[in-house]
Amino acid sequence: MTRWVEPMGLLHGRGAFAAVAAGAALPLEGGAAAFTLVRLIENGQVAGLMPAVETPEAWQEAVLALTRPPPPFAGLPDAATLGRPLVMGVLNVTPDSFSDGGRHMDPRAALMAAHAMLEAGADMIDVGGESTRPGAAAVGPEEEIARILPVIRAIAKDAPVSVDTRHAATMRAALEAGAEVVNDVTALRHDPEALGVVAESGCPVVLMHMPGTDPATMQAHAAYGDVVLEVAGFLAGRIAACEEAGIPRHRIAVDPGIGFGKTLEHNLELLDRLPVLLGLGCPVLVGASRKRFIGTLSGTAAPRDRVAGSLGVAVAAAARGASVLRVHDVAETVAALRLWRASAAGLAQGAEADAEAAAG
Ligand code: 9MG
Predict the structure, then answer these.
(1) Could you report the per-residue pLDDT of 176-222, keeping only the tens digit for each?
(2) Residue 331 and which of 60, 203, 233, 288 are 20 to 30 A apart at CA?
(3) What distance in angstroms lies between residue 259's CA and the mean position of ligand 1's atoms?
């Protein structure tokens, strides 16, 4: 029997504090948001929609999982402490990535871009040497390592680095060069040695959903019943595979894989119902920055013109409990999150006063 609890009726800031204090809502991830309703889903069927505080006993454990803060990711401060999700800056050392392809092939240009992102407020830098855009040509580990290693060695002195790769040899080399996190868009399925490398190194890992393990063909597999439940089920299965291989859950972040073997409708559904994934008990990472569906909806053909649309999605993901945002436009994202928090949270004193009044 597969069970999911979907938190709905989200509140933020003063409304969230007051509703929790009044017994009308439960805290989401122990933080500044709360949920008033739950949709109970059993074997893919909706078994009930009810006030969160009236969840039947048999579902309590799954509901409690939604109320706990996720473990901190990669030893970095959590969203509750920062008041916003972590911001992961994208650095593609590739000739053909969809947005910044070709701009950072020279290690000096890559380093300058990384330092600019850190100064703008990035919490970590995600370095990749193989494009994962739909239809991109595959790159072997040798070429990939040659592209990224000098860059990782230099950046890792100043900031946490994740390595975006599906190759075990690249993971090994990058971790030795100072990378702290593995970000694998195939959730450690592409390379049979990948699970072992991550388990032995003790590093944190990002497990992303995509159908199959090849970006060249993933769009041909964009067919789902309920995309959210299928993605959640896939990620639960990969967490179990990791745990079996010796990678504990507290070292795992999960990612719905926006744009990876998904249509525009799938991407929007995943973003809207992102809170379902919070029940997995891992930080949730969202990477939507400058992707094609943003261009489609905002009428912007060139990826560099999709900044405003990307910020809208970043704020929507933050409001739904994302712990990490993978973005190209770090300064803009940090500013948008700061303003979202300031305007959505209200003043802390006001929230406390409301909560005291509600408690009588
Ligand atoms: C490498 N890469 C490109 N898009 C991504 C996304 O959405 N998530 C993660 N984890 N990695 C991505």
Answers:
(1) 999 999 999 999 999 999 999 999 999 999 999 999 888 888 888 87
(2) 203
(3) 9
**Contact 334/311 with Cβ under 8 angstroms?**
no
Predicted confidence (pLDDT) per residue in 311-338, tens digit: 999 999 999 999 999 999 999 999 999 9
Residues designated as active site: 291, 326
Cα 216 to middle of ligand 1, angstroms: 15
Interatomic CA distance for residues 69 and 80, integer angstroms: 8
Number of CB atoms found within 10 A of residue 96's CB: 14
Checking DSSP bridges between strand 3-12 and strand 33-42, what pairing results, if any?
Answer: antiparallel
Pocket-forming residues, ligand 1, beta carbon under 6 Å: 128, 132, 164, 183, 185, 206, 208, 255, 257-258, 285, 287, 326
Q: Determine which residue's CA is closest to atom 8 belonging to ligand 1.
A: 287
Nearest CA to ligand 1 atom 3: 132
* Type and span of the H or E element at 8: strand 3-12
pTM higher than 0.90 for the full model? Answer: yes
What is the pairing mode between strands 86-92 and 324-327? Answer: parallel
Contact 330, 305 (CB under 8 A): no
What burial class does residue 53 get, using C-beta atoms within 10 Å of its C-beta: 0-12 exposed, 13-18 middle, 19+ buried? middle
- CA neighbor of 338 nearest in space, from 307, 305, 315: 315
